Amino acid sequence: MLTIENLHATVGGKPILNGLTLTVPTGEVHAIMGPNGAGKSTLAYVLGGRPGYEVTDGSATFDGVDLFALEPHERAAAGLFLGFQYPVEIPGVSYLQFLRESLNAQRRGRGEAELSGAEFIKLARAQAATLGMDAEMLKRPVNVGFSGGEKKRAEMVQMGIMAPKLAILDETDSGLDIDALKAVGAGINSIMRSPDKSVLLITHYQRLLDYVRPDRVHVLSGGRIVRSGGAELAQELEREGYAEVAA
To answer: Which residues form the ABC transporter domain (predicted)?
Structure first.
């Protein structure tokens, strides 16, 4: 699904990723853990195509296609979803309007027919129900007045509606209480646990992995993967800390 080879990237001229190599096969959930400043969010933004993040060497292929040859909207239409640590607010734009325009833009990009208003509302309500979210909240402006947990639930609804092939979730557990954490974990499992989908889950802590058990865990330090292992590696990190495990 995703193959990264010797990836180097800079932000504002400062090297952040320094030869990162990683493979996420189709049908698997991989977690990336690491200390602050290791390059975790930079990796997510580089893969998503955020401006200001410059790839200076290396390659990344997504579903057999050169990812860096695609514009951000083309990556989204191809099936890549990027979840943010801090979802942004968009005053004046309802979540329903935002989601419908986003979905239909992706469908147009793939040469598919757009969903009618009735078809979209039915889909949105079904996804909101799956995440335990009141569909009425989707009538509100995007994330305006939402709690941290509500923002993350809404983002899971968005992911369910977009139905991506690959979800890159950047510290999606940040700021969540235990109930919201369980809901987000259940959302990831229900939406993305599939033989034809993959997840790259970026997190500081092992707690989300109690609900979304990864196939592989990778330690990112100094801009590259320094260690990989099974789900038990996350528990080792929780006990020992990054300095000991990444040494």
So the answer is: 2-247
